[in-house]
Amino acid sequence: MTDLLQTRDLTVRFGGHVAVDAVTCAFKAGELTAIVGPNGAGKTTYFNLISGQIPASSGTVQLMGEEIGRLSPSERCRRGLGRAFQLTNLFPGLSVLENVRLAIQAHRPVSGALFSMASSHSALTTEAMSVLERVRLDGVRDQKVSELSHGNQRKLEVAMLIALDPKVYMFDEPTAGMSADEAPVVLDLIAELKADTDRTILLVEHKMDVIRTLADRIIVLHNGELVADGDPAEVIASDVVQEAYMGKELTDV
Amino acid sequence: MLMRLISGDRPRSAILTVVLLAIFLGLLLAPFLFPGVRSLETAARISVFILLAASYDLLLGYTGVVSFAHTMFFGMGAYGVGLASQHMGRGFGSLIVGSLAGAALAAAFAFVIALFSLRVRAIFFAMITLAVASAVAVLVSQLSQITGGEDGFTFQIPRALGPANRMGEFMGVSITGKILNYYVIFFTSLAFFLLLLRIVNSPFGRVLQAIRENDFRAEAIGYRVVRYRTIATCISAAMAAVAGSLFALWLRYVGPETTLSFEIMLDILLMVVIGGMGTIWGAAIGATLMVLAQTYLQDLMGSAAEATLAVPMLSRLLDPDRWLLWLGVLFILSVYFFPAGIVGRLRAGR
């Protein structure tokens, strides 16, 4: 298996605070890596550094062997780095279908982009519909996103990521705030994506049962440092993780 | 066919459809429905300002970029036609060359301004455009050998479009070159208006809307936000220049007062806001209302003041000299009651 994504000594400082501290880690194709750690450990910041929302203070990010650490977020996305956000971050005034169509259009040049009618590109619509069916949102395709329930917005967030068809999927607590009957739709979908062996999945998640079912590997961040990396069962049982979590959340499970 | 022409962007409200049809037919048949110099003048002005406001809405409403340089682009088109007609002699060739040169210059200016400022922050763009527009206005008034300075200059347009060109009668109205000129302006404006409607409903237009909604996410899913904003700015500027060319063609005169003044900039802003930002249709309604109010509110108040002569305070308040006050009141009320503009209000009230 090859390394799709690699960070080396990736660091960011905000004033005197080191939010992510020299994290070196590689992610292989066909692997699902769960990223865990207490609140404020730097998980989301680590994501932001990889996808380019925050510039790194030092260190490198490589995607398929190419350095991408100085590129804009849009350029990184076009090269295959897909990101879903922890706080829902969509186009609220547009319809569900339009949101997904935009994500597809972003990596597929359309002919006559300026002078053709958007609605005439039926291939885009068909593809967007098939993505929406996968997250069971095809029934609300014409609703405005601002009128969707929280659970459906979370699903759309996942749909946007799938629509980008990336090499690297980055999920940031995809099921946060979802009801018990909605979460499985998203989790099953992530399990399906895993079957595709030339992609890699990064998953920030708190729920240990989710991690146990899905993850091939766990990395633990604590105060911005990578403190553990390995097989899920071993890492969860290790002292360092027990300590990082203050002996709370993990022993509960 | 009709749907393709309006790019599938239906008015989506019965009242709105009626109003838009009324504006369209009113302008289409203006020389016959409202004979007279003044009403034709008003109709031509409306035609020009609909295009100008629509082009501004592409920026403000669809891209979320505030520009104060729209009159500068408008002026470039106007001066382009004026200067070309002056130096190349009257003729359709001069009109076309002048319009194209004005539009190209406007797009080039917009490109440079966008390149320097949009990268930083959208608010910076507003400030830069303000500075550049003021500088250009000063420059135009100083370079009086070329531009005629504060007075501007008149020029000759093709004879076919002049009032001396009589082409007989139709429906009791004598068809002169002036009416022909009106139709040149009306149909050019209409064509560019429909083009704008198409652009905002194209895949490109959808991306602009996405950027307005959430530029952070648009960038995150792979759109180069700066590039899209820059292209939109250039298109908007070129369209404004076309409107300026039409205005100069109608007036047979260019000057800072009619094209570059800050009052016109405010008018455009109000047209877009009152009509409804983010809808090209709104620009049509806003422009029509504004021009009508500016032209006829004074008359209306004059007759109202006469009718209320007996009532002491009221007749003073309704004095035609107070028309700006009442225009101001109308703006405040409309923005207060229709924050989403007239189109937004009508669509929501379905």
UniProtKB/TrEMBL annotation, chain A:
One cellular component term from this protein's GO annotations in UniProt: plasma membrane
Annotated organism of origin: Histidinibacterium aquaticum
MF terms in GO: ATP binding; ATP hydrolysis activity
Protein name, per record: ABC transporter ATP-binding protein
InterPro entries in alphabetical order: AAA+_ATPase, ABC_AA/LPS_Transport, ABC_transporter-like_ATP-bd, ABC_transporter-like_CS, P-loop_NTPase
PANTHER family listed in its UniProt record: ABC TRANSPORTER ATP-BINDING PROTEIN (PTHR45772:SF3), CONSERVED COMPONENT OF ABC TRANSPORTER FOR NATURAL AMINO ACIDS-RELATED (PTHR45772)
Source superkingdom: Bacteria
Pfam families listed in its UniProt record: ABC_tran (PF00005)
Keyword set, alphabetical order: ATP-binding, Nucleotide-binding, Transport
Gene3D superfamilies assigned: P-loop containing nucleotide triphosphate hydrolases
Coiled-coil region(s): none
Annotated ranges, domain ABC transporter: 5-248
Automatic annotation (TrEMBL), chain B:
Keywords, ordered alphabetically: Cell membrane, Membrane, Transmembrane, Transmembrane helix
Source species, domain of life: Bacteria
Main location: membrane
Membrane topology according to the record: Multi-pass membrane protein
Keyword Cell membrane: yes
Record keyword Amino-acid biosynthesis present: no
Subcellular location: Cell membrane
Annotated Gene Ontology cellular component terms: plasma membrane
Membrane-crossing residue ranges in chain numbering: 12-34, 46-74, 95-116, 122-140, 180-200, 230-254, 266-293, 323-344
GO MF term (any one): branched-chain amino acid transmembrane transporter activity
A Pfam match: BPD_transp_2
Annotated protein name in UniProt: Branched-chain amino acid ABC transporter permease
Annotated source species: Histidinibacterium aquaticum
